[in-house]
Amino acid sequence: MLLECLANPSITSIVALSRRELDITNSKLDVYIMKDEDFLHYSDSSLTEKLKGAKAYIWSLGITLSKGTGNPRDRVISIDYTAAAAAAFQNAFLSGSSASRAPGDKFRFVYISGSGVERDQERPGKAPRKRNETSDVPFSMTLH
Description:
Order of helices and strands: HEEHEHE
Structural class: alpha/beta
Number of domains: 1
Shape: globular
Number of helices: 3
Largest sheet: 2 strands, parallel
Strand order of the largest sheet: 1-2
Helix content: 25-40%
């Protein structure tokens, strides 16, 4: 997914939040190394500055809770990290310069879930692959 984004000429810059260095270098890519606790608190002002002006975020961090160890940390990683990120990115978008946003611009938070997951968990037919609880977390993403 990262390589596809880097190859897309309409994407001008990417800030990747990672727990380790990446084996990819590209002039459009800025890798920001995060500690586990950083995923709950986006308090580093240098990170906040990097996020300002972003138009979208693709979130692909998580654990399939049904396949997890039952460790409470699995839920923190899958749900709490996601909710904290959504709020931080919304705040960064709203605090960015309004001059850099066109009227009606919206911030897109794209949550990547497991492949083959049935969105409508009540759909009749064969038993659907269950989605992660994160899909049901109500995010307050109303943008002005």
